[in-house]
Specification:
single chain; mainly alpha; globular; MFS_dom; membrane; transmembrane helix
């Protein structure tokens, strides 16, 4: 027995240019969020210099944002349970715009850090509700396609938005990237209002109903796959700058190039993840985790070559395919707690970011060198496979129980 039908879809699915415009509007929010999340990594030197501190000290802004994502996803999903999804998406983008404009105007570091935390709050909830809106516009067998297109906004940000924001910060000052992101959020609000159809299925929900996701072991297992299995990508990419300059012996000017190549890999991964989700979510996750483990085992060989390192970075980026598959998986298992479960996917993704960065740093500090980041990432992918196997067994028991 499958519960795919718990995600309602329009009786007459949206099609043609209208569908593409609606998906583009939703993806624009992902583009803004992706730019806001990652650009700070490239302008840390400017932020640190302005506030007269070291770059590691300024790096607390990244942690503050990630904490906001982890906290905000469940809180805002529950808060917005009774709101129409389109109104909730626009409200979340409004909050993202205000907090980024406030970040641009922050008079001191403590205030900036506070607004970076607030900026992270709408992140996960927006992606969750945007994915549900996208899935409701198409036939059930095309949900992976629709969700993948929304998630592609985040990946295009890594390819284009992040380098643009970093360049703007270096040329005009660190405040301007935050203002740029706020402007993208405002544009997204307009696009969603104008382009996303109003007459879409709106299942009734409540805070208590959404909190039911936290009692669902299948939801927790899916989140565990993401929190562990996605960590391998971050074990490597958190240290892309020293990998490019120290392992591949290239100039610092190639670091933004590597980030753009990584973004291209993420776009390819999002596309592949959407196709796989429309065939078999569980088999798709198995294939992505095995693929990622192989890529990460190969990466230490590629990273020492000044050309092959870019191929390796591209391949590591394709691991983001797991995110789309997990988004669809959470829709399938969340029953009536769709918004919270879909939003928690991004909390898990940020936990994977923290876990991967920590493990990659630990093996470097242990004296094993930058090459060991690939091996550490492969271990996390292998651990994700173990969790997936447990989820598979759990799914078989659940299906047997509901057939009885």
């Amino acid at each position: 027995m499958s519960n795919v039908e718990v995600v309602p879809v329009a009786r007459q699915p949206v099609a043609g240019p209208r569908l593409w415009l609606a998906l583009l509007a939703l993806a624009a929010g992902g583009f803004g969020i992706g730019t806001g999340e990652f650009a700070i990594m490239g302008i840390l030197p400017e932020v640190a210099a302005h506030h007269m501190m070291t770059e590691p000290q300024a790096g607390r802004l990244i942690s503050a944002y990630a904490l906001g994502v982890v906290v905000g996803a469940p809180v805002l999903a529950v808060w917005g349970a009774r709101l129409p999804r389109i109104r909730l998406a626009i409200s979340l983008m409004a909050a993202y715009a205000v907090t980024n404009f406030a970040s641009a105007l922050a008079p001191d570091f403590a205030t900036l850090m506070f607004f970076r935390f607030l900026s992270g709050l709408p992140h996960g909830a927006y992606f969750g509700v945007a994915a549900l809106i996208a899935a409701s516009m198409v036939e059930p067998y095309r949900r992976g396609f629709a969700v993948g297109r929304v998630m592609m906004g985040l990946t295009v940000a890594a390819l284009l938005g992040n380098p643009l924001a970093i360049w703007l910060g270096q040329v005009a000052g660190w405040r301007y990237p935050f203002a740029l992101v706020g402007g993208i959020a405002v544009l997204t609000m307009v696009l969603i209002w104008r382009c996303v159809p109003r007459k879409l299925p709106e299942p009734k929900s409540s805070a208590a109903q959404e909190l039911g996701a936290l009692r669902n072991p299948r939801v927790w297992m899916a989140l565990a796959i993401g929190a562990i299995g996605c960590g391998g990508m971050f074990a490597v990419m958190s240290y892309v700058a020293p990998i490019i300059t120290q392992a591949a012996h290239l100039s610092e000017r190639f670091v933004p190039v590597a980030l753009s190549v990584f973004g291209a890999g993420m776009i390819a991964g999002s596309y592949a993840g959407g196709l796989a989700a429309d065939r078999s979510v569980m088999k798709g996750m198995l294939g992505v985790l095995v693929w990622t483990m192989v890529v990460l085992l190969l990466f230490p060989v590629l990273m020492v070559h000044p050309v092959a390192v870019f191929a390796g970075v591209f391949l590591v980026g394709t691991a983001v395919a797991l995110g789309t598959l997990l988004q669809v998986r959470l829709m399938d298992v969340a029953a009536e707690a769709q918004t919270l479960a879909a939003s928690l996917n991004h909390s898990a993704f940020n936990l994977a970011n923290a876990l991967g960065a920590w493990l990659g740093g630990a093996v470097i500090e242990a004296g094993w060198g930058l090459r060991a980041t690939g091996w550490a990432g492969a271990v996390l992918s292998a651990a994700g496979l173990v969790v997936l196997w447990l989820a598979w067994r759990q799914e078989r028991r659940w299906r047997s129980l509901h057939r009885a």
